[in-house]
Design brief:
By secondary structure, the protein is an alpha+beta fold. The protein has a domain at about 90-205: Glutathione S-transferase Yfyf (Class Pi), Chain A, domain 2 (Up-down Bundle), CATH 1.20.1050. It is about 55% helix and about 5% strand. Strands 2-1-3-4 form a 4-stranded mixed sheet, covered by helices on one side. The termini are far apart.
């Protein structure tokens, strides 16, 4: 099966968590909106009046299925591409961890848009600075400390010896935090040695290394989830 991934063509964003899983699996897929006429295709599917139209990108077309929401897409892909164990209990545990990552991604986004996405960052600088300070004092230690503890108990991957899509998502979180908050992340990394080792392990995997070096990997920029604003990394 050749999958069709629908997401904004110029940012990594939430779509990157799906791309990493597809790339690690060596799956054949179209990144539809990056193709000529692809944005029109995506809009048409979002505005569908029947079937199971998604609320927003990213969504994945797999045969006749249209699957929205990152955690839901990965829950579908995982057992089909050996990115989760076979047992139902393990698959639910991995899904639960991915949903926790989803919560964290929202918190990352809210550092630069604490008053909501309808305003520009420039219109909410002071609240963003306050939110970011709380993010690093309270939320990052809570979330990344949680994953660090689980990794220490299991290792070398988040649930043991088997790579899962959650490991790929944790890699992306480290990459994103390094881009958006280089100074603060450098200081914090000494507290999460297991996650940093996991990041490096994922980066060295052949399919991921090839993807990171390719034009398919969109560079981080100030339109995605992870954005670098110097005042927020002070």
């Amino acid at each position: 099966m050749r999958y069709e991934l629908y997401y904004w063509p110029s940012i990594q964003g939430r779509g990157e968590y799906v791309r990493l899983a597809l790339e690690e699996a060596g799956a054949s897929y179209r990144d539809v909106a990056r193709e000529s006429g692809g944005m029109s295709e995506m809009t048409k599917m979002l505005e569908a009046k029947s079937g199971t139209p998604p609320f927003a990108p990213p969504f994945l077309k797999a045969g006749k299925l249209v699957i929205g929401q990152v955690a839901n897409i990965l829950f579908y892909l995982g057992p089909r591409h050996d990115l989760v164990p076979r047992s139902e209990a393990a698959q639910l545990w991995v899904h639960q961890l991915q949903l926790t990552i989803t919560d964290f991604v929202v918190e990352v986004h809210d550092t630069h848009h604490p008053l909501g996405p309808t305003l520009y960052y420039e219109d909410q600088r002071a609240p963003a600075k306050k939110r970011t300070a709380e993010f690093w004092s309270e939320r990052v230690p809570k979330f990344l400390g949680y994953f660090e503890r689980i990794l220490a108990d299991n290792g070398p991957y988040i649930i043991g010896r088997k790579l899962t899509y959650v490991d790929l998502s944790l890699f992306q979180n480290v990459e994103g935090l390094r881009y958006a908050f280089p100074r603060q992340m450098k200081a914090f990394e000494r507290r999460i040695p297991g996650l940093i080792a996991l990041h490096d392990r994922i980066a060295a995997r052949p399919n991921i290394a090839a993807y990171l070096a390719s034009e398919r990997r969109i560079p981080f920029n100030e339109d995605g989830i992870f954005r670098y604003y110097k005042p927020l990394d002070a």
